[in-house]
Amino acid sequence: MMASAKTWLERIRKLPLPEKIRIMNVCGGHERSISAAGIRGALPPQIELIPGPGCPVCICPEEDVYEAIHLALEEDVILVTFGDMLRVPVNVSRRDVRSLEQARAAGADIRPIASPTEAAAIARDNPERAVVFFAAGFETTMAPVAAMLCEGAPENLFMLLSGRLTWPAVAMLLDSGEPGFDALIAPGHVATVMGPEEWSFVVEQHGLPAAVAGFTSESLLAAMYSVLRQYIEDRRFLDNCYPEVVREDGNPAARARLEQAFDVGDANWRGIGTIPGSGFALKPWLAQRDSVTAFGHHGGEERKRAGQMPKGCDCAKVVLGKIYPNQCRIYGLACTPRTPVGPCMVSDEGACRIWWSNGIRNRDVA
Fold first, then answer.
1. Same domain flag for 283 and 348
2. How far is CA 84 from CA 79, 119, 263, 345, in A?
3. Sign of the torsion angle spanned by Cα atoms 327, 329, 333, 337
């Protein structure tokens, strides 16, 4: 039985901590749990917790969102997508349609869904219509998308795929030579699908402490205690602090579906650029389901902005752990959950939205 959160905090406070240590938590769900539980404020001041790149809505390429908006407006299709995607703005004039939410208000048939099975159900219920599933997400989301495709989706269901793998973004940061963190808390749900071994490169190639964590305060604090001890004792290994769910090799059935449905290649991350080997793409046997193949491009080359964020928005720096959310130039000014400018203020997994929702309203202008 895992120790209580109080016990883990007491153990952490007894450690001979260095003057400063920076721990990155990759997952947006981890950041939500940390902020909601007040873990940052409960830890000794030497420990700096840094939100990382684990928000698929935040890094979904601007041109993919634009493509989805104009596909829905210009073609006789039903477009379905996960709810957070509806409010993500693109880089156009405020006189133009800037989000899927606005496109829906303008008459496009856009429907929020919570799971891939809903997309298939909508396609079956509307056999005379083309249904396009704009699917953004990491491995945990892409696995059920792959299963839906492999198990026989309706013929009128097409895909606008914007899926990404999590670990290549962390690898990019570490390979840069200036990662901005000293230890890593790896995402529990991703490790559940892909296996904890996917994160062994953090230890083996870069010599950083790492631990997989779940989403309770107990699991998160256990992982923090582990990486702190590893750092202090100069003893590096990948620790699994989510053993009740995460198993060696992950979920073989889910991994098999991912391999059956998708190829992996270089992919654009909004505001960051192309990260090698970080994107899912439909296998050739599913090529006829590609929305671009079926309906053509709705953006054009002139719309390719290499993942640009809107003017003044520092979401990319937040995603990469370079700044805290409230250090963004427009945090709480032009950008709030009611009027989001950047995607990090839209998604429930976006660090800016999480910080705002947990009462951090003042900008850090230091």
1. no
2. 14, 15, 25, 10
3. negative
**What distance separates the 2 farthest-apart alpha carbons in the chain?**
67
Q: Give the SS3 label for residue 153.
A: coil
Structural contact between residues 173 and 180, judged by C-beta atoms closer than 8 angstroms:
yes
Mean pLDDT check: name the lowest of 10-19, 189-198, 310-319: 310-319
* Paired tokens of 58: 């935040």
Domain shared by 220 and 331, yes or no: no
End residue of a domain, out of 268, 283, 308: 308
Q: Give the relative orientation of helices 217-233 and 5-13 as an angle to the nearest 10 degrees.
A: 20
Phi and psi, residue 55, nearest 5°: -135, 100
Q: What is the number of alpha carbons within 13 Å of residue 114 lying toward its C-beta? A: 0
Domain containing 188 equals: 13-291+301-308
- The answer on 137 and 59 residing in a single domain is yes
Could you tell me how many residues make up the chain? 366
* Partners of residue 269 on adjacent β-strands: 273
C-alpha triplet 130, 131, 133: angle, nearest 5°? 145
Contact 236, 130 (CB under 8 A): no
Question: Three-state SS for 54?
Answer: strand
Same domain, 241 and 121: yes
140 and 204 assigned to the same domain: yes
CA dist., res. 109 & res. 366, Å (int): 45
The amino acid at 32: R
The Cα–Cα gap between 24 and 174 comes to: 12
Closest by Cα among 48, 47, 50, 42 to 17: 47
The helix (run of H) or strand (run of E) holding residue 163 is strand 157-163
pTM of the entire predicted model: 0.94
| pLDDT tens track for 296-339 | 988 766 655 545 788 889 999 999 999 999 999 999 999 999 99
Q: What is the CATH number of the domain that holds 170?
A: 3.40.50.11740
**Can you list the alpha helix ranges (DSSP code H) found in the chain?**
5-13, 28-37, 39-42, 56-59, 62-74, 100-105, 116-125, 139-150, 167-175, 188-194, 200-204, 217-233, 252-261, 291-295, 315-319, 351-357
What are the start-end ranges of the E strands in 73-139?
77-82, 109-113, 130-137
Does residue 240 fall inside a structural domain?
yes
H or E element at residue 213: strand 210-213
